[in-house]
Specification:
Blueprint: E1 2-7, H1 11-19, E2 31-40, E3 43-52, E4 55-64, E5 72-79, E6 86-97, E7 106-116, H2 119-148
Antiparallel strand pairs: 1-7, 2-3, 3-4, 4-5, 5-6, 6-7
Helix pairs in contact: 1-2
Domain Coenzyme Q-binding protein COQ10 START: 8-141
GO molecular function, one term: ubiquinone binding
Function: Required for the function of coenzyme Q in the respiratory chain. May serve as a chaperone or may be involved in the transport of Q6 from its site of synthesis to the catalytic sites of the respiratory complexes.
């Protein structure tokens, strides 16, 4: 599942926002806790708590912060055998130059690939996944407006 948007914020601003995993609990839908457990260079491990009470799940995500000059990327994946929620979870945020190469805008691409361990979670996700992806991207856009001002 994917979402693409042109935003009135620079690729660097959006990269910094997405890379700040420790603050996700403040604005990401269905995320009630986010904490960076460790960081080695451009790789960090973070624990996230997601869901709706009383159905809350924890998982550890390994986040790779990639920032070459021409394109910023933040791939992440759930890791560890004790991840009860996902068999597989990978997300990828990409931030490229805006239309006509404008540096005060960017093209944001978000994609997510996953498989739940629970058949119930899988059925529910199938019903709402497109809306979930849109709400996630909208939450980051709203957070950018809060931090950086209107587009």
């Amino acid at each position: 599942h994917q979402e693409r948007r042109v935003l009135g914020y620079s690729a660097e601003q959006m990269y910094e926002l997405v890379a700040n995993v420790g603050e996700y609990w403040q604005f990401v839908p269905w995320c009630s806790r986010s904490a960076v457990l460790s960081r080695r260079g451009q790789v960090l491990r973070a624990e996230l708590e997601v869901g709706f009470p009383p159905l809350l799940e924890h998982y550890v995500s390994e986040v790779f912060l990639e920032q070459p000059p021409e394109r910023c990327r933040v791939p992440a994946q759930a890791v560890g055998r004790d991840c009860r929620l996902f068999r597989h979870l990978e997300t990828l945020w990409r931030f490229g130059p805006g239309p006509s190469g404008r540096t005060d805008t960017c093209v944001l691409d978000f994609s997510v690939s996953f498989e739940f361990r629970s058949a119930l979670h899988a059925r529910l996700a199938g019903l709402f996944l497109d809306e979930v992806v849109k709400r996630m991207v909208s939450a980051f856009e709203a957070r950018a407006q809060e931090l950086f001002g209107p587009q």
